[in-house]
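To assess whether the prediction recovers the assembly geometry, we first specified each molecular entity separately, as shown.
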Amino acid sequence: MRQWYTIFQKEMLENWRNFKWVWVPLVILLLSIMDPITTYYMPEILDAVGNLPEGAVFKMPTPSPVESIMMSLSQLNTLGVLVIILMSMQTITGEIKSGVSEIILVKPVSYSNYVTAKWASFILISLASLFVGLIGSWYYTNLLFGDLNFIDLLKVFAFYSLWFMFIISLSIFFNTIVKSQGIILFLTIVVVMALNLLTSVLGKYFNWSPSQLSQHIEDMLLTNHISTDLIMSAIITIAASLLLLIGSITFFQSKKIVE
Amino acid sequence: MFEGLEQINWGIIAPLIVIQLILMVIALVDWSKREVTNGPKWLWLLIIIFVTTLGPIFYFIFGRRDD
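The predicted structure of the complete assembly is given in tokenized form:
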């Protein structure tokens, strides 16, 4: 445990020194407040730059608070996920390339400690960023569109953070299989997109898939009730993340990383 | 032509600008401390300053080289 904590601290220090602790929260915050603000100003923006014909009238429905939070989540679902993958895509392969991992693993450091400490440090960054982003989104929602309960926001955070955890696990998993950063990025995005696609095409059979989480979160906000679908999705997401983590430890131990 | 934009409440927009500025400043600090970057160093300076928001982010992701 002490060994794990030492590696964890090393990771935290490294992520601080390369500014990940600063830019990832800022980018996530930017992504989550962008949509509520642009939606709010859409009529003005169209007025000013839209070159609309004289007398054109646009009726834009004002989004409800729930819709506003969901706009933030849909941004996070696409660009936010990309940021998380980009942030974590070189954590292990980068160290293999620069030789740091050799220096660490030549000592009696267990492979599982090494992988899980990295995993935990990235989870911590992404959850902190998600929290900052959601607080920003909540602030603007209350300011522009109406009240949203803070408890509801905490629920959104609790469930949506599982999706980020799944993305990190996936990225770490590919880190232990392939060596090239580009391929890690590509594979992770392909898997996430395939999952999204399968879920939307075969929604009936993939009702509990991890990418269904945000849909269930919306239902939760609208009906004010945590459905079994949401809980099952959450459980499956946690299980998948843990399986990926175990898988990455096994792959990393077998040292069969593809060039 | 820009009448509509004058009514915008800057209290709402200001945080966006502040976040972008912070990103840019941090990227510049890191840039000035670093001897080598991926690709020509002066090019990254232009990217950080002139490409809003995305410039600093790209610098952090692709420009830094961990040695």
